[in-house]
Specification:
The structure holds two protein chains of two kinds. By secondary structure, chain A is mainly α. Chain A has three domains: 2-248, no CATH class; 272-309; 316-438, no CATH class. Chain A contains 20 helices and no strands. In chain A, helix 5 (54-66) crosses helix 9 (149-161) and helix 8 runs antiparallel to helix 9. The longest helix of chain A has 29 residues, at 82-110. Chain A starts with a helix and ends with a helix. Chain B has one domain (4-102, 136-199). Chain B starts with a helix and ends with a helix. The chains are: A mainly alpha, B mainly alpha. Chain A: Residues 245-295 form the BHLH domain. Chain A: It comes from Turnera subulata. Chain A: Residues 195-211 have a biased composition (Low complexity). Chain A: Keywords: Nucleus, Transcription, Transcription regulation.
C-alpha cells in the first residue's frame, strides 16, 4: 500500500522513468509510515463520511496531509497499481455502504435523486445546503466518534472546499489537456470527473452554469458508473485554483509544475544537511550544489586514497580480512537474525548487536545505543534481513540503518569522527556484543 | 520496494568485482591510473545498481563509455554483472533517453527564440529607464544555479526542472552510499596494512 500510494502521486510520464522505487518514493513511503497510525484511525473514521467523501475525500485527507500542506495541489488520482486495486476497491466497497446509508439519510432532506453512485462519484457538486447539513452531521459524528483532532480538521476543511464548484482538470490522453472552469467561491477544488466518456462536455457546461444544474447532470450521468471504472480512471491531474488565481489551462499547468518542483525541493531539503534553515530557492540550490560537489570531491579523494593505500587493485585481501575479523560475530549473527521480529524488543536487541558490530569495526564510536535503538524502531518501515552472512554484510554494517536517510547522515558523520581501532580489541567487543544480546 | 541497505550491498559487490576485472585487465599501473580505474569502477558500479532506471545512471555509463580506452573497460565491467542486463541497458538507453533528448532540444530552442524576442523588445524599450525588479533578479539567480546543478548531475543538460530535481535526489543518495562504502573500504585496507606492518 505504501508503494501504491507513493506511486499514485506520480504522473504517468514520470512513472515511465521510475519503474522502480526511486528515492522520492522511498522518502514518501517513510513519511507515510510515520503517519500510518493516525491514518488508520482516520480511515476508520472516514467511512462515516462516506456519503460526502468517497474516494476524493480519502485522497484529500491522505495526500493533502501527506504533502504537509493541504493548500497546494491536492487530489491526485489513484494509479492502477496492482497493489492498490485491492485496497481501493475495498475502500470503495466500504464507501458504497457508507454512501448508501448517507444517501438514505440526506437524500430525503434534499428531495433530489441522491443515489449510491452519486454519493461516490459526485461528492463535490452538492448544493451548499446539503453540504452544510452534511457537514454539520458529520461534525457531530466526528466529535462523538473519535478524538482525533487532525482528521476532524481535515474533514472540516474539505467540507468548506466543497461549497464552491470546481476546476475540473481532466487528462484523458497523456497530453495533459487541462480544462479549467472557475466559479465564485472561497476556494475551488478539483475533483475526479468520473463520467468523462459519456457526458464530459455536458458536465462541464453544468459546472459552468450553476451548481444545481451540474448536480442534476452528474446525478443522472454518474448512475451508470461502476466501481471498476472509477478505479481505472487514473489519468487526471487535480488542480485547485484559489481565489484570484488564473484558471486558464496554461497557468494551471504551470502552477502544477511549480508545485511539483517545490514538493521535490522539500524532499531535497530533507536530504541535504544544513538546508533546513534556508528559505528561498536560490539558497537551497546553492546548498544542494555545494553538497553534490562535496560528495563528488569526496569520491575523488577516496579513490585517490585507495589507490595510494593499495599497491595493487586486488581487494581479495579485504574479504579475507572481513571473514577473519567477523567470523566470531557471524556465528552469533544468524540466530539473532532468525529471532528478529517486528516487535520492538527484538529490534532493540538486534540493533544493539548491530551497533556492537559497528563499533567493533571501528567505524563508529559516537552513537549511544538506546537512542539509536529507539530511532531505529521508529524509523524503519521494513524489517531488513540480516540473514545474509556474506562478507559484505559484515564489512558494512551501517548500511542496514539507512532506511532513514537522516540516520544515514548521522552515521556518516560519526564515521568521519571515528578513529580506527586496534586489532586486538576484537575479542572484547565481541564479548560486549554477547552481553548486549542477552540484555 | 528495495531496501536501501541492499543498494550499498549491491554496489559493494559490483564494485569489488569491477575492481578485480580492472586489476586483471592491467597488471602494473601507477597511482594515477589506479585512481582512475578505481573511480571509474566505482561510478559504473553505482550507476549499474540503478539498473538503468534513472537518467543520471544511464548518462554516467554513456559518458564513461564515450572515452575510447574506457569503453572496453566499461563493457567489461558491465558484462561482469550480467549479459542480459547490459542488453537491457542498451535497449532502455536507446529507447528511453533519445526521445527526451529530442524533446528537450526542442524546448531549449523554443526558449532561445523567446529569449531573443524578449531581448529585441527590451532593446526597443531601452530608452525608457527601467527598474530591475527583485523578482527578475531572483529568477536569474535560480536559473544560474540550475545551470550549475545541471552540469553537476550526469546527464543533467537534458533534463527539465522536475526531473532534474528528482534525479538530483536519487543521485545524492547514490553518491552518499558510494562515499560510505568507499570510506569503509579505505578504513579496512588501512587497518589491514597496519596489521601487516605490525606483524612484520
Amino acid at each position: 500500500m505504501n508503494r501504491a500510494a507513493a506511486a499514485a502521486t506520480l504522473l504517468p510520464s514520470e512513472m515511465l522513468h521510475c519503474a522502480d522505487m526511486t528515492v522520492l518514493e522511498r522518502q514518501r513511503a517513510r513519511l507515510k509510515w510515520e503517519q500510518e497510525q493516525q491514518q488508520q484511525q482516520q480511515q476508520l473514521q472516514e467511512s462515516y463520511f462516506g456519503d460526502l467523501g468517497g474516494v476524493v475525500f480519502h485522497q484529500v485527507t491522505q495526500q493533502g496531509e501527506f504533502e504537509g500542506g493541504l493548500g497546494e495541489v491536492v487530489t491526485r488520482s489513484v494509479k492502477p497499481d496492482p497493489g492498490l486495486v485491492d485496497n481501493s476497491s475495498a475502500w470503495i466497497a466500504h464507501d458504497v455502504m457508507a454512501g448508501f446509508v448517507g444517501a438514505c439519510g440526506y437524500g430525503n432532506g434534499t428531495g433530489s435523486g441522491f443515489d449510491m453512485n452519486y454519493g461516490i462519484a459526485r461528492t463535490t457538486s452538492c448544493p451548499p445546503t446539503v453540504v452544510a447539513a452534511a457537514a454539520a452531521a458529520a461534525k457531530g459524528k466526528d466529535s462523538v466518534g473519535s478524538d482525533s483532532k487532525m482528521s476532524s480538521a481535515v474533514g472540516r476543511e474539505s467540507f468548506k472546499k466543497r461549497k464552491a464548484d470546481k476546476v475540473v482538470a481532466e487528462d484523458d490522453t497523456r497530453d495533459k489537456r487541462i480544462k479549467g472552469c472557475a466559479e465564485e467561491g472561497e476556494s475551488k477544488i478539483t475533483e475526479k470527473n468520473n463520467n468523462r466518456s459519456s457526458s464530459s462536455s455536458s458536465n462541464q457546461n453544468g459546472n459552468n452554469k450553476s451548481t444545481k444544474s451540474s448536480k442534476e447532470n452528474s446525478a443522472e450521468t454518474s448512475k451508470d458508473n461502476s466501481k471498476v471504472t472509477e478505479v481505472q480512471k487514473t489519468d487526471y491531474i487535480h488542480v485547485r485554483a484559489r481565489r484570484g488565481q488564473a484558471t486558464d489551462s496554461h497557468s494551471l499547468a504551470e502552477r502544477v509544475r511549480r508545485e511539483k518542483i517545490s514538493e521535490r525541493m522539500k524532499y531535497l531539503q530533507d536530504l541535504v544537511p544544513g538546508c533546513n534553515k534556508i528559505t528561498g530557492k536560490a539558497g537551497m540550490l546553492d546548498e544542494i550544489i555545494n553538497y553534490v560537489q562535496s560528495l563528488q570531491r569526496q569520491v575523488e579523494f577516496l579513490s585517490m586514497k585507495l589507490a595510494a593505500v593499495n599497491p595493487r587493485l586486488d581487494f581479495n585481501i579485504d574479504n579475507l580480512f572481513a571473514k577473519e575479523a567477523f567470523s566470531a560475530c557471524a556465528t552469533n549473527f544468524p540466530t539473532m537474525g532468525m529471532s528478529s521480529d517486528m516487535t520492538n524488543p527484538a529490534y532493540l536487541q538486534l540493533n544493539s548487536v548491530q551497533q556492537q558490530l559497528v563499533s567493533c569495526c571501528g567505524l563508529d564510536m559516537g552513537i549511544n545505543p538506546p537512542d539509536m535503538g529507539i530511532r531505529r524502531t521508529i524509523s524503519a518501515p521494513i524489517p531488513e534481513t540480516f540473514l545474509d552472512s556474506s562478507c559484505f554484510t559484515q564489512i558494512q554494517p551501517p548500511s542496514t540503518w539507512d532506511a532513514d536517510l537522516q540516520n544515514l547522515y548521522n552515521v556518516a558523520f560519526d564515521q568521519g569522527r571515528s578513529t580506527s581501532f586496534p586489532p586486538q580489541a576484537f575479542a572484547g567487543s565481541i564479548e560486549a556484543s554477547n552481553m548486549k544480546m542477552e540484555m | 520496494m528495495r531496501a536501501p541497505s541492499s543498494l550499498k550491498k549491491e554496489f559493494m559487490k559490483k564494485w569489488i568485482s569491477g575492481l578485480q576485472a580492472c586489476s586483471s585487465a592491467k597488471q602494473h599501473m601507477n597511482i594515477l591510473e589506479r585512481k582512475k580505474a578505481i573511480k571509474l569502477s566505482a561510478d559504473i558500479a553505482m550507476a549499474s545498481t540503478r539498473n538503468g532506471r534513472t537518467c543520471w545512471s544511464r548518462a554516467l555509463i554513456a559518458n564513461a563509455s564515450k572515452d575510447g580506452e574506457n569503453k572496453a573497460l566499461v563493457e567489461q565491467l558491465l558484462a561482469n554483472d550480467e549479459v542480459e542486463k547490459l542488453n537491457n541497458h542498451k535497449q532502455q538507453f536507446s529507447a528511453g533517453s533519445v526521445r527526451p533528448c529530442c524533446n528537450n532540444n526542442k524546448r531549449v530552442r523554443c526558449k532561445k527564440i523567446l529569449k531573443n524576442i524578449r531581448c529585441v523588445r527590451s532593446r526597443a524599450r531601452k530608452n525608457v529607464p527601467r527598474v530591475v525588479s527583485a523578482k527578475s533578479i531572483a529568477k536569474r539567480m535560480v536559473q544560474k544555479r540550475t545551470q550549475v546543478l545541471k552540469s553537476l548531475v550526469p546527464g543533467g543538460e537534458f533534463m527539465d526542472g522536475i526531473s532534474l530535481v528528482e534525479e538530483t535526489l536519487d543521485y545524492i543518495v547514490s553518491l552518499r552510499a558510494q562515499v560510505d562504502v568507499m570510506r569503509i573500504l579505505v578504513k579496512a585496507t588501512e587497518t589491514m596494512n597496519r596489521k601487516a606492518t605490525t606483524i612484520n
